[in-house]
């Protein structure tokens, strides 16, 4: 009797591949984490209308703008990687995954430069509640970017070897979620600055 | 549907996302915060919907994923409603934490107020801006519930563990 790999990929009660269901569970829990953070931000933003507006005016809109374009583009690359993996084009999948990782790296570099600039001007995490929110929200998001890049790096080599190609889709779902979080963070942190 | 068609559709969605992003930037130019927030959030919702539907393929996923997704969104709404009554209040002293003061007294004097420099007798405003007196002991004894609780905790802490 042949012993296959003891991983349930398609036989979950829901009919959804187990890995994909797990990723969606992760995202569901993340919704509550980031959602709670964003909702608290909105409440305080409305409460401290003028003070927070003044603080938000010191964020660098250009950095936010570049990072938004970079993340949206990286989302395109990872969905193209998924598309390539579905068609067993492992080389293309590998290449697109690394384009996505490069997007994450650019995002982090821009964010690092931006933070360095802000901290050097005295806008630290303890400056006031707005900056506390800013660093916690963007920092938590940045950690998710780093985590996604590491996982993508591992999956890329598996994909190149033609193994576990379904994982390209799984990391893609996660990466899109990271993009979605930024879609909401950008207007709150950078645009609402009057 | 051909491969090329899929790729073209992804690129088209990406272009739409970029276009909507530019639109949210343009809406911020007049400098009206309400317009900026509402338009940026509405556009963000549309963008998030496009990413989840087309890039995350939620439009073709089974309903379980939708249930999971929306039940967590509903849970977030519940959290929001739970904290909004407190956080939404604009007046009163609901942001002032007087608990540490009471605890410090309790540890030092078992809830008795020898020096009389505590919050008793001071008017404390509730969240709606109404002035209330914090201690209502008829005998005039200088202690309140928070002191007693803190003293009880303090005594518990001192009790030897068996």
Protein model, in words:
The complex is a heterodimer of chains A (194) and B (162). Chain A is mainly α and 194 residues long. Chain A has six helices and no strands. Chain A has helices at residues 18-47, 49-56, 61-86, 90-120, 129-160, 166-191. In chain A, helix 3 runs antiparallel to helix 6 and helix 4 runs antiparallel to helix 5. By secondary structure, chain B is mostly helical. Mean pLDDT of chain B is 68; it is low at 109-162. In chain B, helix 1 runs antiparallel to helix 2 and helix 4 (99-109) crosses helix 5 (145-158). At the A-B interface, helix 1, helix 3 and helix 6 of A face helix 1, helix 2 and helix 3 of B.
Please give a quick description of this structure.
With 194 residues, chain A is mostly helical. Chain A contains six helices and no strands. The longest helix of chain A has 32 residues, at 129-160.
Which stretches of chain A are low in confidence, meaning pLDDT under 50 for 5 or more residues running? none
Strand content of chain B: under 5%
Distance between the termini of chain B: 74 Å
Mean pLDDT across all amino acids of chain A: 90
- Rounded radius of gyration of chain B (Å): 28 Å
Strand fraction of chain A: under 5%
**Straight-line N-to-C gap of chain A:** 70 Å
Number of strands of chain B: 2
Count of extended strands of chain A:
0
Structural category of chain B is mainly alpha
Percentage of residues in helical conformation of chain B: 55-70%
